[in-house]
Design brief:
This protein is an alpha+beta fold. It has 14 helices and 24 strands. A hairpin with a 2-residue loop joins strand 11 and strand 12.
Length: 567
């Protein structure tokens, strides 16, 4: 054998010996453990007949305990149907070498945190506690389920121990690993004539990993002490399971039926039996000539109130126009102070008797054009000045529609009465929804009541019901509206066109068709001169022409309606 060959073989042998040495060092059981790791944990579990579980854990540290010992014990565990088990941890002690280490026990969310100062301790550390709530009902048995090793802030090399039971058990399970792991422990046995108490053993557990036991007993051996809490969730509070859904549906169905019957009984107009009360007509006065005649004493304010059961701003504005056209007022449009200033108007009262005026018109006339006023009232300042008067105008109109037999009760009182019931039912529904959603699964029942309350508020607006006379008048309004929208506007007698066409306007403002009658007034102007005083009831500024009337009147109606009802 050559010297070179011998040298190569010696080198190979040296490398092999070095590798074997490294492998031996790595695999040796004497290799130092990670700092703070427990070499072993001995667990003694005692299960009492009342379901209480006492756990005693003895930790042995090869290199001394960590500076701070910490263990986190879960106090809740979720189960199906938005429920959870709740546990109570008590009688916590931590000792080392027989000396109390004075632990601190705090609650952080769903966890009980045990901490102790173990700086410099070399003796085994023993942690003991009792848990209540781990014995739960499982069909016809009591199952004791608890992670006896859990929530440690350091790893464990080996776990072993035994379980003291009060009697025979039905089954025995042990799992280990990360939370919710289903991997079995390395060894668990017991319940034989030689080993009455179960024993278990498992290898390494990382920080935060656990070892959990599940032992089943006859209920006479171990009583359940579970604490099951129902969690609140939107899904549970407003459950769509059959019972709450059926109750909510029944409430909605009965509520809808009740509202329908209520409206038919108290909110439907009485039948006029085909009767029609005419309000006004276009009366023939010659071939191809007609004039507008009001039949009776139904004024535009009455028409608007009976039509929609409310005294609206347009009803009051139309009444102002009617007063002017009946020669109780003159409406004067003022010249603009600047090019971009808004248009303004004043009301001039015309002296004359007011005995033939209904109370609401007297109140309105006194509000916008007081007798013996030093200066005329401007539309731009009329709102705050007549707020109280407008309320009295509305009240007087409501009284009149009752006095004339068109309603049995004032429409505003009827609405207010039913609104109170509606708001009461709505409030009850909201309160029921809150209470039922917090404490039960029947939140939908409260919502159903709330919807019925909202339905009653809606129906309340329709509850004022017209009498037979009111229904007949409503039919007359329909007939007059048809005439206002279709009757020819060029049939007024010559020489009286402005007057006859003007009389139509207040009713057309309320019922519709005002634009076509305004155009007819414009068409009646047969000269090119300015028309500031051509209308007896509406005066324009200097240079004003009849062709300006449609824009002026639309502006007037809009401005006055807003000003009279401003607050």
């Amino acid at each position: 054998m050559s010297a070179v060959l011998r040298a190569r073989r010696g080198l190979v042998a040296a490398v092999a010996i070095a590798l074997l040495a490294v492998f031996a060092l790595v695999s040796s059981p004497l290799t130092a453990r990670a700092e703070g790791e427990a070499e072993s944990v001995d667990v003694q579990v005692t299960i009492a007949g009342d379901g209480a579980v006492t756990v005693e854990q003895t930790f042995t540290f090869a290199g001394g305990a960590p500076s701070t010992f910490e263990q986190r014990l879960a106090q809740r565990r979720g189960i199906i149907d938005d429920r959870e088990y709740r546990y109570r941890v008590s009688d916590v002690t931590v000792t080392a070498g027989g000396q109390d280490v004075a632990p601190t026990v705090e609650t952080e969310g769903d966890t009980a945190v045990i901490t102790a100062d173990t700086e410099g301790i070399t003796e085994p550390v023993t942690v003991s506690y009792t848990v209540t709530g781990a014995a739960v009902n499982i069909e016809d048995a009591t199952a004791v389920q608890w992670p006896i090793v859990q929530g440690l802030n350091f790893p464990v090399a080996e776990v072993s121990g035994d379980i003291r039971v009060p009697g025979l058990f039905r089954y025995l399970r042990c799992t280990a690993g990360p939370p919710n792991s289903t991997d079995p422990c390395q060894m668990i046995a017991g319940g034989t004539e030689y080993e009455r108490f179960p024993q278990f053993r498992h290898g390494a557990l990382g920080a935060g990993e656990m070892l959990a036991l599940d032992i089943g007993f006859d209920p006479v051996v171990v009583a359940a002490n579970e604490d099951v809490h129902q969690n609140w969730t939107i899904g549970r509070a407003f459950s769509v399971s059959p019972l709450p859904l059926a109750i909510a549906g029944a409430i909605l169905l009965l509520g809808a039926l009740g509202l329908y019957l209520l409206h038919r009984k108290a909110g439907s107009d009485a039948s006029a039996g085909g009767k029609v009360t005419p309000i006004a007509e276009f009366h023939p006065v010659g071939e191809g000539r007609t004039e507008f005649r009001v039949l009776g004493d139904v004024r535009p304010g009455h028409v608007g109130t009976v039509a929609d059961e409310r005294v609206d701003p347009i009803d009051v504005t139309a009444s102002l126009l009617d007063l002017a056209i009946r020669k109780h007022l003159v409406i004067e449009e003022l010249p603009r102070e600047t090019e971009f200033a808004p248009t303004d108007w004043v009301f001039h009262r015309v002296d004359g008797p007011t005995d033939d005026l209904p109370p609401f018109e007297v109140e309105l006339l006194d509000a916008v054009a007081p007798e013996n006023a030093e200066t005329p009232v401007r539309v731009s300042t009329i709102g705050p000045a007549v707020n109280e008067s407008i309320g009295r105008v509305q009240s007087a109109l409501y009284d009149e529609v009752v006095d004339k037999g068109w309603y049995e009760r004032r429409p505003d009182d009827t609405r207010s009465s039913w609104n109170r019931w509606g708001f009461a039912l709505l409030g009850l529904g909201i309160l029921a929804t809150i209470v039922l959603a917090i404490f039960t699964q029947f939140g939908l029942v409260g919502l159903a009541i709330t919807l019925v309350g909202l339905g009653l508020l809606f129906v309340a607006q329709e509850m004022p019901s017209r009498t037979v006379k009111g229904s007949a008048l409503l039919a007359g309004m329909g007939a007059l509206r048809g005439d206002l929208l279709t009757h020819p506007t060029d049939q007024m007698p010559p020489g009286h066109k402005y007057h006859e066409l003007s009389e139509v306007l207040p009713y057309a403002v309320v019922l519709g068709g005002a634009d076509r009658w305004l155009k007819a007034i414009v068409a009646a102007d047969d000269d090119d001169t300015s028309d500031e005083r051509d209308l007896f009831w509406y005066h324009g500024p200097k240079g004003w022409h009849m062709s300006d009337l449609p824009a002026s009147l639309r502006n007037f109606v809009t401005t006055v309606s807003g000003s009279l009802f401003s607050r």
